[in-house]
Amino acid sequence: MSRKKRIRQILWIIVAVVMLVLTGCSDKKEPEDKVLRVGVVTYTSDDPFINALADELKENLKSMETKDMKIMVSIKNGDDDQQDQDEIVEEMIDAGCDVLCVNLVDRTAPSRIIRLAKQNDIPVLFFNREPVWEDLTQWEDLYYVGCDAEQSGIMQGETAAEYICSHPEVDRNQDGKIQYVLLEGEAGHQDAISRTDYSVKTLIEQGIHLEKLSYQFADWNRGQAENRMNRLISQYEDSIELIISNNDEMALGAVAAYQKAGYEQDKWPVIFGIDGLDDALEAVKSGKMQGTVYNDKEDQAMQMAKLAVEVFKGEDTNRKQLKAGRYYVSQYQQVDSSNVDEFFKR
Ligand code: BGC
Ligand code: CA
Protein backbone atom coordinates (compact mmCIF):
# COMPACT_ATOMS: atom_id res chain seq x y z
CA MET A 1 0.00 0.00 0.00
CA SER A 2 1.36 3.37 -1.02
CA ARG A 3 1.99 5.97 1.62
CA LYS A 4 -0.63 8.23 0.00
CA LYS A 5 -3.25 5.46 0.07
CA ARG A 6 -2.53 4.74 3.76
CA ILE A 7 -2.96 8.40 4.68
CA ARG A 8 -6.29 8.50 2.80
CA GLN A 9 -7.43 5.35 4.61
CA ILE A 10 -6.50 6.82 7.99
CA LEU A 11 -8.34 10.03 7.13
CA TRP A 12 -11.49 8.03 6.21
CA ILE A 13 -11.30 6.17 9.50
CA ILE A 14 -11.05 9.47 11.39
CA VAL A 15 -14.07 10.89 9.48
CA ALA A 16 -16.07 7.71 10.19
CA VAL A 17 -15.26 7.80 13.91
CA VAL A 18 -16.19 11.50 14.14
CA MET A 19 -19.49 10.86 12.29
CA LEU A 20 -20.28 7.96 14.61
CA VAL A 21 -19.57 9.98 17.71
CA LEU A 22 -21.67 12.90 16.47
CA THR A 23 -24.72 10.92 15.38
CA GLY A 24 -24.39 8.66 18.41
CA CYS A 25 -24.49 11.71 20.66
CA SER A 26 -27.50 13.29 19.07
CA ASP A 27 -29.46 10.03 19.14
CA LYS A 28 -28.99 9.47 22.82
CA LYS A 29 -29.06 13.11 23.87
CA GLU A 30 -31.58 13.99 26.63
CA PRO A 31 -33.69 17.12 25.89
CA GLU A 32 -31.61 20.00 27.16
CA ASP A 33 -32.88 21.21 30.56
CA LYS A 34 -34.67 24.52 30.25
CA VAL A 35 -34.56 27.10 32.98
CA LEU A 36 -37.07 29.92 33.10
CA ARG A 37 -35.77 32.81 35.18
CA VAL A 38 -38.49 35.23 36.25
CA GLY A 39 -37.57 38.57 37.79
CA VAL A 40 -40.31 40.17 39.88
CA VAL A 41 -39.83 43.80 40.98
CA THR A 42 -42.40 45.47 43.22
CA TYR A 43 -42.58 49.22 43.94
CA THR A 44 -41.86 48.83 47.67
CA SER A 45 -41.33 46.13 50.28
CA ASP A 46 -43.94 47.77 52.45
CA ASP A 47 -47.31 47.06 50.83
CA PRO A 48 -49.24 44.07 52.21
CA PHE A 49 -51.44 43.66 49.13
CA ILE A 50 -48.46 43.70 46.77
CA ASN A 51 -46.45 41.35 48.99
CA ALA A 52 -49.32 38.86 49.12
CA LEU A 53 -49.66 39.06 45.33
CA ALA A 54 -45.91 38.55 44.77
CA ASP A 55 -45.81 35.54 47.14
CA GLU A 56 -48.76 34.01 45.35
CA LEU A 57 -47.07 34.58 41.99
CA LYS A 58 -43.92 32.83 43.18
CA GLU A 59 -45.90 29.85 44.44
CA ASN A 60 -47.80 29.57 41.17
CA LEU A 61 -44.63 29.73 39.10
CA LYS A 62 -42.99 27.09 41.26
CA SER A 63 -46.01 24.81 40.83
CA MET A 64 -45.62 25.08 37.05
CA GLU A 65 -42.15 23.53 37.03
CA THR A 66 -41.89 20.35 35.02
CA LYS A 67 -39.12 17.83 34.71
CA ASP A 68 -38.00 19.61 31.54
CA MET A 69 -38.35 23.12 32.85
CA LYS A 70 -37.01 24.48 36.08
CA ILE A 71 -38.41 27.88 37.15
CA MET A 72 -36.35 30.29 39.19
CA VAL A 73 -38.04 33.32 40.71
CA SER A 74 -36.28 36.32 42.16
CA ILE A 75 -38.35 38.98 43.96
CA LYS A 76 -36.93 42.45 44.60
CA ASN A 77 -38.40 45.87 45.24
CA GLY A 78 -37.77 49.39 43.98
CA ASP A 79 -37.72 50.97 47.43
CA ASP A 80 -40.23 53.58 46.26
CA ASP A 81 -37.75 55.09 43.83
CA GLN A 82 -38.12 54.71 40.05
CA GLN A 83 -34.41 55.10 39.41
CA ASP A 84 -33.59 52.35 41.92
CA GLN A 85 -36.18 50.13 40.28
CA ASP A 86 -34.70 50.78 36.82
CA GLU A 87 -31.30 49.72 38.13
CA ILE A 88 -32.67 46.54 39.66
CA VAL A 89 -34.30 45.68 36.34
CA GLU A 90 -30.98 46.23 34.58
CA GLU A 91 -29.21 43.94 37.08
CA MET A 92 -31.84 41.26 36.58
CA ILE A 93 -31.43 41.43 32.82
CA ASP A 94 -27.64 41.23 33.18
CA ALA A 95 -28.07 38.20 35.43
CA GLY A 96 -29.92 36.42 32.61
CA CYS A 97 -33.58 36.79 33.48
CA ASP A 98 -36.03 35.61 30.78
CA VAL A 99 -39.27 37.34 31.77
CA LEU A 100 -39.84 40.39 33.94
CA CYS A 101 -42.87 41.15 36.14
CA VAL A 102 -42.82 44.82 37.04
CA ASN A 103 -44.96 46.74 39.53
CA LEU A 104 -43.79 50.24 38.60
CA VAL A 105 -42.91 52.81 41.24
CA ASP A 106 -44.04 55.59 38.92
CA ARG A 107 -46.52 54.29 36.40
CA THR A 108 -45.85 57.28 34.13
CA ALA A 109 -42.12 56.54 33.90
CA PRO A 110 -41.54 53.06 32.44
CA SER A 111 -39.41 54.27 29.49
CA ARG A 112 -36.04 53.04 30.69
CA ILE A 113 -37.40 49.63 31.65
CA ILE A 114 -39.14 49.31 28.29
CA ARG A 115 -36.00 50.33 26.41
CA LEU A 116 -33.84 47.81 28.30
CA ALA A 117 -36.39 45.03 27.84
CA LYS A 118 -36.71 45.69 24.12
CA GLN A 119 -32.94 45.85 23.57
CA ASN A 120 -32.50 42.51 25.34
CA ASP A 121 -35.71 40.92 24.06
CA ILE A 122 -37.14 40.26 27.53
CA PRO A 123 -40.97 40.32 27.71
CA VAL A 124 -42.42 42.44 30.51
CA LEU A 125 -45.63 41.80 32.42
CA PHE A 126 -46.48 45.04 34.19
CA PHE A 127 -48.92 44.57 37.05
CA ASN A 128 -51.08 46.59 39.44
CA ARG A 129 -49.62 49.99 38.48
CA GLU A 130 -50.74 50.54 34.93
CA PRO A 131 -48.56 52.21 32.30
CA VAL A 132 -50.42 54.47 29.91
CA TRP A 133 -51.42 53.06 26.52
CA GLU A 134 -48.71 55.03 24.64
CA ASP A 135 -46.06 53.31 26.78
CA LEU A 136 -47.58 49.85 26.76
CA THR A 137 -47.71 49.85 22.97
CA GLN A 138 -44.06 50.80 22.50
CA TRP A 139 -43.15 47.18 21.91
CA GLU A 140 -45.12 44.00 21.20
CA ASP A 141 -43.92 42.02 24.24
CA LEU A 142 -45.35 44.33 26.91
CA TYR A 143 -48.44 43.25 28.87
CA TYR A 144 -50.52 44.47 31.80
CA VAL A 145 -52.28 42.43 34.48
CA GLY A 146 -54.60 44.33 36.78
CA CYS A 147 -58.19 45.36 37.28
CA ASP A 148 -60.73 47.89 36.18
CA ALA A 149 -60.51 50.41 39.04
CA GLU A 150 -63.86 51.94 38.12
CA GLN A 151 -65.52 48.62 38.93
CA SER A 152 -64.11 48.64 42.47
CA GLY A 153 -65.31 52.20 43.05
CA ILE A 154 -68.81 51.33 41.87
CA MET A 155 -68.91 48.17 44.01
CA GLN A 156 -67.67 50.03 47.08
CA GLY A 157 -70.30 52.75 46.53
CA GLU A 158 -73.04 50.14 46.10
CA THR A 159 -72.05 48.19 49.22
CA ALA A 160 -71.94 51.39 51.28
CA ALA A 161 -75.24 52.71 49.88
CA GLU A 162 -76.98 49.41 50.58
CA TYR A 163 -75.69 49.39 54.16
CA ILE A 164 -76.65 53.02 54.81
CA CYS A 165 -80.16 52.52 53.37
CA SER A 166 -80.82 49.55 55.62
CA HIS A 167 -79.21 51.15 58.72
CA PRO A 168 -80.72 54.63 59.28
CA GLU A 169 -78.66 54.94 62.50
CA VAL A 170 -75.57 55.62 60.33
CA ASP A 171 -76.90 59.19 60.09
CA ARG A 172 -76.08 59.68 63.75
CA ASN A 173 -77.13 63.32 63.98
CA GLN A 174 -80.24 62.63 61.86
CA ASP A 175 -79.71 65.61 59.56
CA GLY A 176 -80.51 63.61 56.43
CA LYS A 177 -76.89 63.81 55.25
CA ILE A 178 -73.96 61.48 55.71
CA GLN A 179 -70.86 63.34 56.84
CA TYR A 180 -67.92 61.54 55.27
CA VAL A 181 -64.14 61.35 55.03
CA LEU A 182 -62.33 59.86 52.06
CA LEU A 183 -58.91 58.22 52.44
CA GLU A 184 -57.05 58.35 49.14
CA GLY A 185 -54.26 56.02 48.07
CA GLU A 186 -51.70 57.91 46.11
CA ALA A 187 -51.88 60.90 43.78
CA GLY A 188 -51.71 59.77 40.16
CA HIS A 189 -52.40 56.05 40.81
CA GLN A 190 -55.11 54.79 38.45
CA ASP A 191 -56.86 52.91 41.27
CA ALA A 192 -56.94 55.88 43.65
CA ILE A 193 -58.31 58.25 41.02
CA SER A 194 -61.13 55.99 39.81
CA ARG A 195 -62.05 54.51 43.18
CA THR A 196 -62.49 57.97 44.71
CA ASP A 197 -64.47 59.19 41.76
CA TYR A 198 -66.79 56.22 41.29
CA SER A 199 -67.52 55.33 44.90
CA VAL A 200 -68.75 58.86 45.64
CA LYS A 201 -70.65 59.06 42.34
CA THR A 202 -72.32 55.72 43.01
CA LEU A 203 -73.39 56.67 46.54
CA ILE A 204 -74.97 59.85 45.18
CA GLU A 205 -76.67 57.95 42.35
CA GLN A 206 -78.12 55.56 44.93
CA GLY A 207 -79.80 58.53 46.62
CA ILE A 208 -77.44 59.06 49.57
CA HIS A 209 -76.99 62.73 50.50
CA LEU A 210 -73.34 63.21 51.27
CA GLU A 211 -71.51 65.96 53.04
CA LYS A 212 -67.76 65.94 52.49
CA LEU A 213 -65.70 66.68 55.59
CA SER A 214 -62.23 65.86 54.31
CA TYR A 215 -60.20 64.06 51.61
CA GLN A 216 -56.78 62.86 52.78
CA PHE A 217 -53.96 61.16 50.89
CA ALA A 218 -52.36 58.41 52.98
CA ASP A 219 -50.29 56.52 50.39
CA TRP A 220 -52.18 53.22 50.74
CA ASN A 221 -50.60 52.97 54.17
CA ARG A 222 -52.14 51.95 57.50
CA GLY A 223 -49.88 54.08 59.71
CA GLN A 224 -50.31 57.20 57.61
CA ALA A 225 -54.08 56.78 57.57
CA GLU A 226 -54.10 56.36 61.34
CA ASN A 227 -52.22 59.67 61.71
CA ARG A 228 -54.58 61.49 59.36
CA MET A 229 -57.58 60.07 61.22
CA ASN A 230 -56.16 61.07 64.62
CA ARG A 231 -56.17 64.66 63.47
CA LEU A 232 -59.64 64.43 61.96
CA ILE A 233 -61.04 62.77 65.09
CA SER A 234 -59.69 65.62 67.25
CA GLN A 235 -61.29 68.07 64.85
CA TYR A 236 -64.67 66.41 64.23
CA GLU A 237 -64.99 64.19 67.33
CA ASP A 238 -67.85 61.74 66.78
CA SER A 239 -69.46 63.56 63.87
CA ILE A 240 -67.80 61.55 61.07
CA GLU A 241 -70.45 59.06 59.92
CA LEU A 242 -68.79 57.34 56.98
CA ILE A 243 -65.22 56.56 55.92
CA ILE A 244 -64.59 55.54 52.34
CA SER A 245 -61.08 54.25 51.88
CA ASN A 246 -59.28 53.48 48.60
CA ASN A 247 -57.89 50.32 50.20
CA ASP A 248 -58.20 48.12 53.29
CA GLU A 249 -54.87 49.05 54.86
CA MET A 250 -55.97 52.68 55.20
CA ALA A 251 -59.44 51.58 56.39
CA LEU A 252 -57.69 49.57 59.10
CA GLY A 253 -55.68 52.68 59.99
CA ALA A 254 -59.01 54.41 60.64
CA VAL A 255 -60.17 51.46 62.77
CA ALA A 256 -56.96 51.73 64.83
CA ALA A 257 -57.43 55.48 65.27
CA TYR A 258 -60.97 55.05 66.68
CA GLN A 259 -59.85 52.22 68.93
CA LYS A 260 -56.97 54.26 70.34
CA ALA A 261 -59.11 57.39 70.72
CA GLY A 262 -61.27 55.31 73.07
CA TYR A 263 -64.58 55.69 71.23
CA GLU A 264 -67.28 53.07 71.82
CA GLN A 265 -68.06 51.26 68.57
CA ASP A 266 -71.53 52.86 68.31
CA LYS A 267 -69.79 56.23 67.95
CA TRP A 268 -67.60 55.02 65.08
CA PRO A 269 -68.41 55.82 61.49
CA VAL A 270 -69.13 52.96 59.12
CA ILE A 271 -65.93 52.06 57.27
CA PHE A 272 -65.50 50.61 53.77
CA GLY A 273 -62.25 49.47 52.14
CA ILE A 274 -61.01 47.61 49.07
CA ASP A 275 -58.73 44.52 48.67
CA GLY A 276 -60.13 41.83 50.97
CA LEU A 277 -56.89 41.11 52.79
CA ASP A 278 -57.25 38.83 55.84
CA ASP A 279 -57.12 41.61 58.48
CA ALA A 280 -59.91 43.46 56.70
CA LEU A 281 -62.01 40.32 56.30
CA GLU A 282 -61.63 39.80 60.07
CA ALA A 283 -62.71 43.41 60.63
CA VAL A 284 -65.79 42.94 58.44
CA LYS A 285 -66.62 39.74 60.30
CA SER A 286 -66.33 41.41 63.71
CA GLY A 287 -68.25 44.54 62.63
CA LYS A 288 -65.33 46.99 62.80
CA MET A 289 -65.64 47.49 59.06
CA GLN A 290 -68.88 47.14 57.13
CA GLY A 291 -67.55 46.09 53.76
CA THR A 292 -64.73 45.71 51.31
CA VAL A 293 -64.24 44.77 47.67
CA TYR A 294 -62.20 41.69 46.85
CA ASN A 295 -59.16 42.52 44.71
CA ASP A 296 -58.51 39.06 43.33
CA LYS A 297 -54.78 38.62 43.86
CA GLU A 298 -55.00 34.86 43.34
CA ASP A 299 -56.49 35.35 39.90
CA GLN A 300 -53.98 38.07 38.96
CA ALA A 301 -51.04 35.99 40.18
CA MET A 302 -52.27 32.92 38.28
CA GLN A 303 -52.64 34.88 35.04
CA MET A 304 -49.16 36.32 35.42
CA ALA A 305 -47.63 32.93 36.04
CA LYS A 306 -49.39 31.45 33.01
CA LEU A 307 -48.38 34.36 30.81
CA ALA A 308 -44.77 34.23 31.98
CA VAL A 309 -44.50 30.55 31.06
CA GLU A 310 -46.30 31.12 27.78
CA VAL A 311 -44.19 34.01 26.54
CA PHE A 312 -41.10 32.03 27.47
CA LYS A 313 -42.24 29.03 25.46
CA GLY A 314 -43.52 31.21 22.63
CA GLU A 315 -47.10 29.93 23.07
CA ASP A 316 -50.22 32.05 23.01
CA THR A 317 -53.25 30.25 24.49
CA ASN A 318 -53.75 32.84 27.24
CA ARG A 319 -52.26 35.67 25.27
CA LYS A 320 -54.98 35.27 22.65
CA GLN A 321 -57.61 36.06 25.31
CA LEU A 322 -56.03 39.34 26.37
CA LYS A 323 -57.90 42.58 25.79
CA ALA A 324 -56.26 44.41 22.87
CA GLY A 325 -53.66 41.62 22.95
CA ARG A 326 -52.12 43.12 26.10
CA TYR A 327 -54.48 43.52 29.06
CA TYR A 328 -55.73 40.98 31.56
CA VAL A 329 -58.56 42.52 33.59
CA SER A 330 -59.37 40.66 36.80
CA GLN A 331 -62.88 40.95 38.26
CA TYR A 332 -63.58 42.49 41.68
CA GLN A 333 -66.21 41.10 44.07
CA GLN A 334 -68.32 42.81 46.73
CA VAL A 335 -67.79 41.67 50.31
CA ASP A 336 -69.93 42.38 53.38
CA SER A 337 -70.91 40.46 56.52
CA SER A 338 -73.30 38.26 54.51
CA ASN A 339 -70.59 36.63 52.35
CA VAL A 340 -67.29 37.40 54.11
CA ASP A 341 -66.70 33.77 55.10
CA GLU A 342 -66.33 32.75 51.47
CA PHE A 343 -63.25 34.92 51.09
CA PHE A 344 -60.99 33.69 53.88
CA LYS A 345 -58.01 31.57 52.79
CA ARG A 346 -58.57 31.84 49.08
C1 BGC B 1 -54.35 48.07 46.08
C2 BGC B 1 -53.62 48.75 47.20
C3 BGC B 1 -52.15 48.80 46.91
C4 BGC B 1 -51.92 49.44 45.56
C5 BGC B 1 -50.46 49.45 45.21
C6 BGC B 1 -54.03 48.77 44.79
O1 BGC B 1 -54.64 48.09 43.75
O2 BGC B 1 -55.74 48.12 46.31
O3 BGC B 1 -53.82 48.09 48.41
O4 BGC B 1 -51.52 49.53 47.91
O5 BGC B 1 -52.65 48.79 44.58
O6 BGC B 1 -50.21 49.89 43.92
CA1 CA C 1 -75.55 63.08 59.37
Which ions and ligands are bound to the chains? beta-D-glucopyranose, calcium ion
Per the CATH scheme, the topology name of the largest domain is Rossmann fold
**Beta-strand percentage range:** 15-25%
**Judging by the overall fold, what is the CATH architecture of the largest domain?**
3-Layer(aba) Sandwich
Overall pLDDT confidence: 93
CATH class division of the largest domain? Alpha Beta
The number of domains is: 2
Largest sheet: 6 strands, parallel
Radius of gyration (CA) equals 27 Å
Between the first and last Cα atoms, what is the distance in angstroms?
Answer: 83 Å
Low-confidence stretches: 22-31
Order of helices and strands: HEHEHEHEHEHEHEHEHEHEHEE
CATH superfamily of the largest domain: Response regulator
- The number of distinct helices, counting runs of at least 4 residues, comes to 11
Taken from the alpha-carbon principal axes, the silhouette is elongated
Provide the helix percentage. Answer: 40-55%
Task: Tally the beta strands.
Answer: 12
Secondary structural class: alpha/beta
Spatial strand order of the main sheet: 2-1-3-4-5-11
Subcellular location: Cell envelope
GO molecular function: carbohydrate binding; metal ion binding
Keywords: Calcium, Metal-binding, Periplasm, Signal, Sugar transport, Transport
Organism: Mediterraneibacter butyricigenes
